[in-house]
Design goal:
- This protein is of the alpha/beta class.
- The protein has a single domain, classed as Rossmann fold (3-Layer(aba) Sandwich), CATH 3.40.50.2020.
- It has three helices and nine strands.
- Strands 4-3-2-5-6-7 form a six-stranded mixed β-sheet, with helices on both faces. A three-stranded antiparallel β-sheet has the order 1-9-8, covered by helices on one side.
- Helix 1 packs across helix 2.
- The structure holds guanosine-5'-monophosphate.
- The site of guanosine-5'-monophosphate has 15 residues, from strand 5, helix 3 and strand 8.
């Protein structure tokens, strides 16, 4: 049975749209960071597909690091405290960080991570998110690079999962009746 043609999936952003937009974001970062050798930090697992395409659209010397977080308990509380499950390998002191995320929803994760990175001495922190769901925001987060604004729907594909499935879809889709 084909996963990519699964009739339960309704495509929201096509493969071609993703390619074009990620290429534009990379070109913009290339212009903005000329001479600054940014460090791109990928928030695992969801941002890994976006990260791997984005870095190949940035024509600059750069480095990469990876962090994995989980929220405490099921529903994230308003303090937005997240647990770092896998920490960075390299120190952040003096680095120009681009925090790469799959989707900005309530904003609690990115708010926590950017404060955490600032406290570790990063020189600058910018956020690059593929998707943005502004309807659900609980805390203000300043976004420097955004792929697409989407409505308040649960999406999968291009790194995003539903119970670990669908991360390999080459497009972004909404799952019709997920159970
Ligand atoms: P925030 O802290 O902004 O609420 O949460 C962001 C995280 O929630 C994302 O990194 C992602 O893991 C998860 N998330 C939020 N909305 C969606 C969605 O529509 N689909 C999927 N698969 N994950 C989502």
């Amino acid at each position: 049975m084909s996963e990519f043609n699964n009739p339960k999936l309704e495509i929201l952003i096509s493969t071609d749209q993703l390619k074009e937009r990620v290429r534009e974001m990379g070109a913009q970062i290339t212009r903005d960071y000329a001479g600054r050798n940014p460090e791109l930090i990928c928030v695992l697992k969801g941002a890994m597909v976006f990260m791997s395409d984005l870095v190949r659209a940035i024509d600059l010397p750069l480095s990469m690091d990876f962090i994995a977080v989980s929220s405490y308990g099921k529903g994230m509380n308003t303090s937005g405290e997240v647990k770092i499950v896998k920490d960075l390998d390299e120190p952040l002191e003096g680095r120009n960080i681009i925090l790469v995320e799959d989707i900005l929803d309530t904003g609690l994760t990115l708010n926590y991570l950017s404060n955490n990175f600032r406290s570790r001495g990063a020189s600058s922190i910018a956020i690059a998110t593929l998707l943005n769901k502004p309807d659900r925001r609980k805390v203000d987060v300043e976004v420097s690079y955004q792929g697409f604004e989407i409505p308040d729907k649960f999406v999968v594909g291009y790194g995003l999962d539903f119970a670990e499935r669908y991360r390999n879809l080459p497009f972004i889709a909404v799952v019709k009746d997920p159970v």
